[in-house]
Amino acid sequence: MTGPARPAAALTVVTGAASGIGRATASALAEAGHRLLLLDRDATPLAAVAGGTGGTALAVDLADGPATDALVREALAGTPVDVLVNCAGVGWPADTAETTDELWETTLAVNLSGTFRMCRLVLPGMVERGRGVIANVASAGALVGLRRRVAYCASKAGVLGLTRALAADHAGQGVRVFAVCPGTVDTPWVDRMVHDEPDPEAVRRRMRERQLDGRLGSPEEVAGWIAFAVSDQGRFLNGAPLVIDGGLTAV
């Protein structure tokens, strides 16, 4: 599912574009005619994605807010941004007792503060031009509690709250902001997280079983919905979560 092609001059920024949902989203948007600026901290795979999509790669670590602000401003060089897709995210299995200050702060720095900073960078230009779309990738964990995901769920719930507030702030200004709440998706990040568990196969089985479809989603399934939702065909979606979770939050 993809939306209509974008005008050649339109610039779309995708964070977390080196792998997983971000990578699939970059590919889907490139197919729809978007001109891409792709951000990720992993420079080598990011360069490969940029090469495959015709986009421009910018290696940044969203945990370092001031450096990210400076690098993105320099890369944009005044170029208007019509679409921002915030896909960058981190997370580690940890319950409350296992959640160190460093884990908590890093998770929120990337997932919540990084999302906020990127929105803050592009919103003034969108408001000035009277058009723009922001898609913030949250999680089904923003809607329901997930075991041993304390910092992750808190950060993603924050992304959902941020999304609603931004949509309310900019209502009537030609800008819309929505969230995307995927269920468990088969990405390299999930592979790494499962690998760190004592019984990886048991964890993966529980992940499949908690979704009504009995399987993990694919990055391409989520990316297709994002590409549609940021297009003009998705223009009635604003201030709300787009839940693509295989039924995880239904029961």
TrEMBL record:
Entry keyword Transcription: no
Q: Name one Pfam family in it.
A: adh_short_C2
Question: Which keywords fit this entry according to its UniProt record?
Answer: Oxidoreductase
* Top-level taxon: Bacteria
Cited InterPro entries: NAD(P)-bd_dom_sf, Sc_DH/Rdtase_CS, SDR_DHRS6-like, SDR_fam
User: DNA-binding as a keyword?
Assistant: no
- One term of GO molecular function: oxidoreductase activity
Family statement drawn from the similarity comment of this UniProt entry: Belongs to the short-chain dehydrogenases/reductases (SDR) family.
Q: What is this protein called?
A: Short-chain dehydrogenase
